[in-house]
Design a protein that fits this description.
Helices cover about 25% and strands about 45% of the residues. The protein contains three helices and nine strands. The chain has helices spanning about 1-15, 25-35, 115-120, and strands at about 45-55, 55-65, 70-75, 80-85, 90-100, 105-110, 125-130, 135-140, 150-155.
Length: about 160
């Protein structure tokens, strides 16, 4: 009788250890991503589309065209962005500092590509209204009267 009891006890122990409480790698990654504290704009972002405004209301929206890429990378105080337009041989990039204050994003560019350097000579500071979530943000260009003109809409890629 003792050997049968030992076999039953061993089977019970083995089946209880093999319960469905194992987590897959994707489960662990998802939990890590959702509990990880995101720090404002810090990280890498990719442009996914645009909005046009009239009377401060979105009148048109469109996604980036196939092959077009624009990426912004923010550290604690620095910003760098680059744009690749396959149909255009002009290089586009810029580097500088930024400040995020409430709903205002201010970027001050130090230097950029040849085309961007020409723009920086006339205007170094770019001020946007910003709408920021953990995984998306929109930077909205405002005219001199305080009206929204257009926005660039980004998704977090890192």
């Amino acid at each position: 009788m003792k050997p049968i009891f030992a076999i039953i006890l061993t089977c019970l122990l083995l089946t209880s250890c093999n319960s469905n409480t194992t987590e897959t790698k994707s489960d662990i990654t998802q939990k890590t991503e959702t509990t990880k504290e995101l720090n404002g704009l810090e990280g890498a972002w990719e442009l996914i589309g645009f909005y046009n405004y009239k009377d401060n209301v979105v009148t048109d929206s469109f996604a980036t065209t196939e092959g077009y890429r624009q990426v912004k990378i923010y550290t604690k105080t620095k910003v760098m962005w680059s744009k690749d337009v396959p149909t255009d041989s002009t290089e586009w990039f810029g580097y500088g500092t930024y400040n995020l204050d409430n709903q205002t994003l201010t970027e001050v560019l130090d230097y950029g590509s040849e085309m961007m350097s020409k723009i920086i000579q006339e205007r170094k500071e770019f001020v946007y209204e910003i709408h920021l979530t953990d995984y998306t943000f929109s930077q909205i260009e405002i005219d001199e009267d305080g009206n929204r003109i257009y926005s660039e809409n980004y998704k977090r890629i890192e």
